[in-house]
Amino acid sequence: MIKATAVDKRFEDLQAVSNLTLHVQRGSIYGLLGSNGAGKTTLLKMLAGIYKQDQGKITINNQPIYEVPDTKQRVLFIPDQPYFLHQTSLNNMAAFYEQVYTHWNSNRFKQITDHFKMDPNKKLNRMSKGMQRQASFILSLSTMPEVMILDEPFDGLDPVVRQQMKNLILQDVADRGLTLLVSSHNLREMEDFCDYVGIMHKGTLLFERDMDELKTDIHKLQIAFRVVPDKSFLDGLNVLHYEKRGSVLLCIVKGSVGEISDYVESYNPAIFDLLPLTLEEIFIYELGGVGYEIRNLIVE
Ligand SMILES: Nc1ncnc2c1ncn2[C@@H]1O[C@H](COP(=O)(O)OP(=O)(O)OP(=O)(O)O)[C@@H](O)[C@H]1O
């Protein structure tokens, strides 16, 4: 559905996105995570056809997006800062969208506007940040998009509205096969919302995984031994990270629960816990692996 192949983007002497390849399947929700300045917004803007890539290929539904109005009809981008025409109301914006988007759905616009109790005649620039964000969602969802590309979309929404917006999106994913690419720093929220996640750092995609696979394939082990084995113990596991905390060995390992458990149990440990890894832990370990680890800040 959304395909980026070997994409580069440079701003003067800064390589913002470098040789990046990404594929988002139809009807799936892909969460783009990453460090500050990783290049997420730049990538999303290229995928939405706002920036042109310097190198590489981008297609949506096998069609290029940049300067191709037909593709743009079905692709909606919501930036991190909502943007509206000057001194305008939600109703005026709706009239504008209706001219531009051929699949505009007036009934849907009215239904969602009523549901969120938005005043469609109030000037948008007099609305709060969260209300402006709701307005962006209402307009976007009323264009009946095939693809939505969202840059930190839920920031500024209260928990109730946030959940309702997510429910509306999930309904479109289930009913119409909407495809969603969403960037966020809220890892807890992405963990529940996304089918796939990718982690970006310094313009490249470090890591890309199916969320279900992630939950069944990477684990955290806490082991205390009666008789501490030598280091060859770790050679029998696919270890991503390990540390010793007193007499407890803490490991992050890849592999199936059955194989890992059989192996560790064969050492007859006094304590052995196998726990799922949170997305936050994966994020920290993956970025730690490329030198972006958490260090305590000491100031004089
Ligand atoms: N229009 C621009 N002109 C010059 N440099 C830019 C421009 N837009 C982004 N950059 C630079 O490109 C790099 C990637 O920025 P980008 O906004 O894509 O990162 P991000 O992953 O979205 O960051 P954050 O999580 O902090 O929002 C940064 O170093 C940024 O300063």
UniProtKB/TrEMBL annotation:
One of its GO terms (molecular function) is ATP binding. Keywords: ATP-binding, Nucleotide-binding, Transport. The keyword Membrane does not apply. Pfam families: ABC_tran. Residues 2-227 form the ABC transporter domain. InterPro entries: AAA+_ATPase, ABC_transporter-like_ATP-bd, ABC_Transporter_VariousFunc, P-loop_NTPase. SMART domains: AAA. PANTHER family: ABC TRANSPORTER ATP-BINDING PROTEIN ALBC-RELATED (PTHR42939). This is ABC transporter domain-containing protein.
